Amino acid sequence: MSDIQEKPKAISLTDRAAEQVKVIMARSEENITGLRLGMKKGGCAGMEYVMEYAREAEPLDEVVEDKGVTIYIDSRAFLFLLGTEMDYVTEKLSSQFVFNNPNQTSACGCGESVEITPMSADAVGNFS
Q1: Average pLDDT over residues 85-100
Q2: d(Cα 49, Cα 29) in Å, to the nearest integer?
Q3: What domains does the chain contain, in order, with CATH numbers?
Q4: Cα(57)–Cα(38) distance, integer angstroms
């Protein structure tokens, strides 16, 4: 038996999120290999999540494979997203991707933007 423990992924997907990403990608007319996930400044809390189709990894992207889905994490967002779980939630009047981010310190009232403190450099070594 090996004492080597697998490092946690930089981001993980719930089963619902993985299935929804596969459905969305299958509908695309482009040759897509995964989703690029990042952050941008905006909203009243300061930052917003950004997702887009990706044909290939950018040179500095962190590539995560989870549940049959490839996620490319933009290098500028990496420290903000470490440890995040991406979920897909369906409610009565809406369906959306939701990010359960341990680095989030607050969110605006409408839920469109968040305040995030990047993970410390010491903690980064625990992630692959």
Answers
A1: 92
A2: 24
A3: 11-124 (2.60.300.12)
A4: 13
